[in-house]
Amino acid sequence: MKENANPAGIIGKDALAELIRRYRPYTKQGKVADYIPELAYTNPHALGIAVAGADGSLVHEGDATTRFTLQSISKIITLMVALNDYGPERVFSKVGMEPSVDPFNSIVKLETLDQKKPLNPMINAGAIVIASLLSAGGNPDEGLQRICDTISRIIGRNDIRVDQKVYQSERKTGDRNRALAYFMKSTGVIDADVDVEETLDLYFKACSLEVDCVDLAKIGLFFAMWGKCVQKQDDGTCLTEGIVSPRIAQIVTTIMITSGMYNHSGEFFLKVGLPAKSGVSGGIVAFAPNRYGFGIFGPAIDAAGNSVAGVRMLEDLSRTFGLHLVSPYVEF
Ligand SMILES: NC(=O)CC[C@H](N)C(=O)O
User: What spacing in Å lies between the alpha carbon of 68 and ligand 1's midpoint?
Assistant: First the structure.
């Protein structure tokens, strides 16, 4: 069945400009996160989008080169690094694979579930457990370095850095995350010999890494291609070669589908039908497997912590370009 498989052809700059024009007014319907005080200084009406194609194309529009912090989008990278280092069995002995109906920073299930482990690696508790694995052995700096190196190779620039103001702001006000971490240490989910403050430091710094929409689109495309090489360098080598196996890329992708948009993951998948991960700074990384990586910045977020205009832009793109993964138009 070929009809409507890709109704509007390739995604070009004009389509992106039209999206920004159409959805910028929706930034008024959200609010910039202010529980991390430094984030409150962001322009609420900013909106940008970048699209990286499997053919090597890259287009962007709006505030696509404005830098912002990764926040929860870092969770897909730390998960991937932990899966590489420890393997799925060890990682999922510490953190679950089930979506959560509670907010991303909720503590309630940690006491009520039979197994005390957090529901999934995309909520704060789950990501903090992952950070505890990466900071094990008292080496959080090495953990952060590996996260930065991985991102650098994917986005093709090695000046990735921690936004010190956001990091300090998170560290000063991160008592909810501190509570999650100490609680999980008390129940044995975080190992007894782990220094919780070092784990939190790694978590806060990973959340405070600076990126832009173009970087996110490249991260999206990396997962869209299952970690395989998209672009060779002039000397024939490939920076992304060997970062991750297709099997681990598949696990991260699946967790993004079920939990990437927090407690709105079900509605998001129904409407957009793509793997995605958002952050409270207003970033979203999403991708259409084997085709496109998307990077979005729209700091006005909704109650779940997702960019209001960003989600709508992805919904529009998915509909217009026939990207929904559960589609009657898939070719067999
Ligand atoms: N949803 C998010 O992006 C949360 C990340 C943020 N750093 C926090 O811990 O609260």
Answer: 13
